[in-house]
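Quick one:
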Amino acid sequence: MSSPQHTASPSALFDLSGRAALITGATGALGSEAARALAAAGARLTLTAGGADALEALGSELRDSGAEVELVARRPASAQDADAIAEAAVRAHGRIDILLTAAGLNKTAPIVDLAVEDWDTVMDGNVRGSWLACRAVGRRMIDQGDGGRVILVSSTRGKLGHPAGYTAYCPSKAAIDGLTKALACEWGAAGITVNAIAPTVFRSNLTAWMYADEGRGQAVREQMLGRIPLGRLGEPADFVGPLVFLSSAASSFVTGQIIYVDGGYTAG
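Output:
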């Protein structure tokens, strides 16, 4: 993706028609919302996830809407997996223009109780998988010779600690922030921008209890809202604007940035 030229229509900067996007963790709350958004903006998609049934359901939905979609029921858990995913994307669409690493997980417990295996699981899922996906896709973007867009998913917890047993999750997201900045420096000369989107709590299957109107969820939500200036928790749709911006020519001079999508949570 080369530098943008002057255009009579600024909205054209956000057009992704014909661009080939690869999304890991595509069946999660953020990944599926991202897939719908990039498809609506005109991108051709390669979607990956470990759960074949959920992946097929998402693929059918997007194809019914007219999107061009390749499905790969595989996680970037090893170098071989990541290379196979990237190769499948190139076979399907001829190239990769956009990578979004949306896979992630958490295991919570006080550090004195957290199993080493749980630490390894979080670091593997959140950091190692993203690193491997970037490595495999970056090789192909560099060979293509015309740049690309890489977007990682971080969290406000990459910047802030948490009292509820997040000693694996917080370091994993801080590592994503560091990876974002390191790759932005390493790949800038190749015209590849690398940025991260860092949401606060957003609605998903894992956080549904925080959106409940009674019980512990209500108490935790009220505590969170006390420091969110915009006065609400996040929704997956809040991810869409920053994603399309970072995927498009509109962000051609933006790299190495952590974009907080948090209603102002990290501002105060």
